[in-house]
Write a structure and sequence with these properties.
The chain is globular, with a radius of gyration of 17 Å. α1 links the parallel β3 and β4. α4 crosses α5 and α4 packs antiparallel against α7. By secondary structure, the chain is an alpha/beta fold. It has 11 helices and 10 strands. Keywords: Hydrolase, Oxidoreductase, Peroxidase. InterPro entries: AB_hydrolase, AB_hydrolase_1, AB_hydrolase_fold, Epox_hydrolase-like. One of its GO terms (molecular function) is hydrolase activity.
Length: 278
């Protein structure tokens, strides 16, 4: 574990917390979802390490054990933070795995920083191409009313909001697909998130258009999604990302919710390891 300095302006350097298994294996960089931390990859890191990969997972600014500045909660800055991780550790031939809002970092990193360090990418239950439902994006699954409700819920009562959010996060068709202990572990991670950062990051993943970013992706890509994802519905996100990336692979996991890397860890890991081996 280490801290990496990410730069935002002349007088606003921040420290990102990074967990790095080390070793000579090919690097796999795990980018967590909102409002969690790198600890949310607990079901993937042992499997990837056992398969011989070097696993790097970091906490996004404002979340987990990373610094929590007042600014920088936009995807250009998130992508720059990711670039700082790759550059500082000098990772090459790497695979980026972006879960949920982390998929936005993958797309924006490639659009802004290129693919020289990359072998492949994975969009897991990810928010691209564009969540917001707008006149020029009618397939966007996030209505303005739903976005306003989320923001209001988080502003008014953070504890109650996260309790409901984690329930939906891990539920498929109204049925919780993890143990209560696993849900409580996720709630514990939400408590590490800065309130201001959570609100600004929510705005970022809900309103950022990644359609042009996806056009820059030419490395091999895997899309993993649950068919019962109620948080980032497959039809409006993963399906469209797959269609936007010619030659991409698609794995849809049956009866899986948004948090499928925990609820369906075996299927998720099998799909990821199979893709990495190609």
């Amino acid at each position: 574990m280490s801290e990496i300095t990410a730069h935002k302006g002349l007088f606003n350097d921040i420290e990102l917390h990074v967990d790095d298994t080390g070793g000579s294996g090919r690097p796999v960089v795990l980018i967590h979802g909102w409002p969690l931390s790198a600890e949310s990859w607990s079901e993937q890191i042992p499997a990837l390490t056992a398969a011989g990969y070097r696993v790097v997972a970091y906490d996004r600014r404002g979340f987990g054990r990373s610094d929590k500045p007042r600014s920088g909660y936009d995807y250009n800055t998130f992508a720059t933070d990711l670039a700082a991780v790759l550059d500082t550790l000098d990772l090459r031939d790497a695979t980026l795995v972006g879960f949920s809002m982390g998929g936005g970092e993958v797309a924006r990193y490639i659009a802004n920083h290129g693919q020289d360090r990359l072998r492949s990418v994975v969009f897991a239950a990810a928010v691209p191409p564009y969540l917001a439902q707008t006149p020029d994006n009618p397939e966007g699954p996030l209505t303005q009313e739903a976005a306003d409700d989320m923001e209001r819920g988080l502003r008014d009562d953070e504890s109650t909001f996260y309790d409901g959010f984690t329930t939906q996060f891990f539920s498929a068709n109204g049925e919780l697909k993890v143990t209560e202990e696993q849900r409580q572990q996720a709630i514990a991670l939400t408590r590490q998130a800065d309130h201001h950062a959570a609100l600004k990051a929510m705005e970022a993943f809900g309103t950022t258009d990644f359609r042009r970013d996806l056009a820059a992706v030419t490395v091999p890509a895997l899309i993993i999604h649950g068919d019962s994802d109620a948080t980032v519905p497959f039809e409006g996100s993963g399906k469209r990302t797959h269609e936007a990336l010619p030659g991409s692979e698609l794995v849809v996991i049956e009866d899986a919710p948004h948090g499928l890397n925990v609820s369906h860890a075996r299927e998720f890991n099998e799909a990821l390891l199979t893709f990495l081996a190609t």
